[in-house]
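Data card: per-record layout.
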Amino acid sequence: FGTLDELFEALTLIQTSKAARFPVVLVGTKFWGGLVDWLRNTMLVEGKISEGDPDLFHVTDSASEAVDIVERFYTEHSMVPNF
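The structure for this 83-residue chain is written out next.
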């Protein structure tokens, strides 16, 4: 379980191409909902983040969906996870 700081650090590294894109999955729509709403309804609307930035992560309540997101990412990008 990462911290909010680590989440934004990971997203920043992806945005700036300092790290290769990897799946970021946030589990718990109730927990993450307020942050996601703020990102979309405030930061995006005010032009503080780019339109595609919210697409850098996924939010789910399902462990199996989280696994599917990760597996789909690696399949679509013809990559193999390093774990």
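Known properties of this structure: The helical segments are 4-15, 29-44, 63-76. The radius of gyration is 13 Å.

See the next section for split statistics.
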